[in-house]
Write a structure and sequence with these properties.
Shape: globular
Number of domains: 1
CATH architecture: 3-Layer(aba) Sandwich
Bound molecules: flavin-adenine dinucleotide
Strand content: 25-35%
CATH class: Alpha Beta
Distance between the termini: 57 Å
Strand order of the largest sheet: 11-10-9-12-8-1-6-7-13
Number of strands: 13
Number of helices: 6
Mean pLDDT: 93
Structural class: alpha/beta
Length: 266
Amino acid sequence: MHALIFIKQVPDASQVRVNYETGTLIREGVPAILNPFEAHAVEEAVRLREKIGGKVSVLTMGPPQATDALKECLSMGADNAYLLSDRVFAGSDTLATSYALYEGARKIIELEGDVDLFFAGKQAIDGDTAQTGPGIATRFGIPLITYLIKLDEVNIDKKYAIATRLTEFGQETVKTPLPAFFTVEETLNELSYAPLPWLIKAAQTEIKRLSSENVELDRNQCGLKHSPTKVKKAFTPEKRQRGETLKGTCNDLAKQASEILLPFVK
Ligand SMILES: Cc1cc2nc3c(=O)[nH]c(=O)nc-3n(C[C@H](O)[C@H](O)[C@H](O)COP(=O)(O)OP(=O)(O)OC[C@H]3O[C@@H](n4cnc5c(N)ncnc54)[C@H](O)[C@@H]3O)c2cc1C
C-alpha cells in the first residue's frame, strides 16, 4: 500500500486578526501550522500502513519554511516527505497549484512506486476554496471521494476501497476502484500520540526537494501569468451587530419569536 497525502502549511487562523482600517489580515507574528484536515489524513494513512503494511508519503508545495509542516507529518509516522518549491510557482491560483502538485505527485510515483490512495484535506483553512484536491484528482482521471468520514475497507490486492462520506443530506457509503483520491473531514479519526521511535526516525529523515530542475513542468501552466483567477476585490465583511436576547417563559419566547419571524413568512 502506498498512500500520498497533499499537505499545506497555513497561518494559524485562530490567531489571524483583521486590520479593519486597511481591510487586510495581520499575519505578523502568526505561527504557521499544518492545515488541520491533513493531520487526520496522515493519521488514517499511517494507521492503514500499521495494519496492512506499505508506506506513506507526503508532499507540499510552498516556501522552504513549509518543511516544518512536513517534519510534523514525519513525526506522525509518514515515511517520506517531499517539498515542491520553485520561483516558477509564485502567484499560482488553485488551477496552477493543482497542476504543480499533479506533476510533483507524478515524480513521486516515479521515485517511490505507484500510489493506491491519494489524500488531501477537505479544504485549507486560509484559501478555503476546496478546489485543489479535486483539481489533482481530475488530472489523474481517478475516482474522487470528497468529505471522507470513514475508510471502511481497503483491499490492495483486489484494488478497491469502501468509504463513507458526508453529503448534504446525510452519509453515503461507496465502493471505489483504486487508485482513488479522498478529501478528508476532521471527524475521520482521533489524532494519536506518536511513539518515541517514530519521533527519532522523523528527526533523521531527510526532506526531499523537488523543483523545476527535477520535475518535468509545462511552464505555460505555472505561476501568476498562467493563473486565470483574478481577485476583483478583497474586503472584510461588515461586523455583525449583536442580536437581541429574548427573555421570558417558553410561551413568552415562542410568542416573541413568532412576532419577529412572521413578517418573513409569505
Ligand atoms: C491570483 C492568485 C494568486 C496567488 N498567489 C499565491 C502565491 O504567490 N503564493 C501562495 O502561497 N499562494 C498564492 N495563492 C493562493 C493559492 O492559490 C492557494 O493557496 C492554493 O491554490 C490552495 O488553495 P486553497 O488555499 O483554497 O486550498 P484548498 O483547495 O481549500 O485546499 C484543499 C486541500 O488541498 C491540499 N493543498 C492545497 N494547497 C496545497 C499545497 N500548496 N501543497 C500541498 N497540498 C495543498 C491540502 O490537502 C488542502 O487541504 C494565490 C491565489 C490566487 C487566486
